[in-house]
Amino acid sequence: MNTNQIAHIAGLVGEPARTAMLMALMDGRALTARELADAGHITAQTASRHLALLVEAGLLRLERQGRHRYHRLASADVARVLEGLMQLAVQQPAPATAPRRVVVGPRDAALRTARTCYDHIAGRLGVAITEHLLDEGAMAFDGDAGGHVTAQAAAVLQRLGLDEGARQGAAGSGKRPHCRPCLDWSERRMHVAGKLGAMICSHCLQEGWLLRRADSRALEITPGGAVALRNWLGHVRWGQVASASSH
């Protein structure tokens, strides 16, 4: 392993303006250089130089659509590294004198309730979905890095309203699809990432159960979404999700 390359990547991520731009892309969207310049509170010219470095390092991917150019995170691996850094950032060191209460995760109740983590759901909703899938035997985690869906997944996903094509995609036509645990930096428990997590997030957005916010990673749970998700998760688990907005 080239330690200079590790230091180079760390230096790219560690510059405040670049950090802000990377965080703006953590909801899985593709943004223009101007939008990312605004996120980093820098000029368009300065943002262009930063973005070129991030693309060259493989942290961002540049996409062209007609005359427009968009940037997005290069992969789920990049999002996972950023999420890990966010976990470290919110941990407060132990004081030398009296103990202090450790505040984990975002203070914003909306972010604690539900947010995007790249292409899947995080926050209390993401954790509740994951625990429901585990309790129903729809999936299992293989340690801290991997997981797989089971034969029960199709029935569990059907109750969420996923169609036959989506359920077959989750089953992987006899092959285990990519499904892995992702440590939630606000809940300090696992939420499901990978293909299964992305599929559930996409379904909830398409059904209008969750709405993206233009200026935040927070996901708004609509009234219809509250009913659908409560019916699927059960009243007790749903109550744990809903309580995030009251703290």
What value does the Rg take, in angstroms?
Answer: 19 Å
Poorly predicted runs are 97-104, 173-177
- Shape descriptor: globular
Quaternary structure: single chain
Largest sheet, in brief, is:
2 strands, antiparallel
Q: Please, how many helices?
A: 12
Terminal-residue CA separation: 44 Å
Q: Strand share of the residues?
A: 15-25%
User: How many domains comprise the coordinates?
Assistant: 2
Q: Report the count of strand segments.
A: 10
Mean pLDDT: 83
What is the SS-derived class? alpha+beta
Properties at a glance:
alpha+beta, two-stranded antiparallel sheet, 10 strands
Describe the structure concisely for a colleague.
By secondary structure, this protein is α+β, with helices and mostly antiparallel strands.
Describe the structure.
- The chain has helices at 3-14, 16-24, 33-40, 44-56, 76-89, 109-113, 123-135, 153-159, 164-171, 194-206, 223-233, 235-242, and strands spanning 60-65, 68-73, 115-117, 120-122, 139-142, 146-149, 179-183, 190-193, 210-213, 216-221.
- 33% of the residues are buried.
- It has 2 domains: 3-74, Winged helix-like DNA-binding domain superfamily/Winged helix DNA-binding domain (Arc Repressor Mutant, subunit A, Orthogonal Bundle); 109-246, no CATH class.
- It has 12 helices and 10 strands.
- With 247 residues, the chain is an alpha+beta fold.
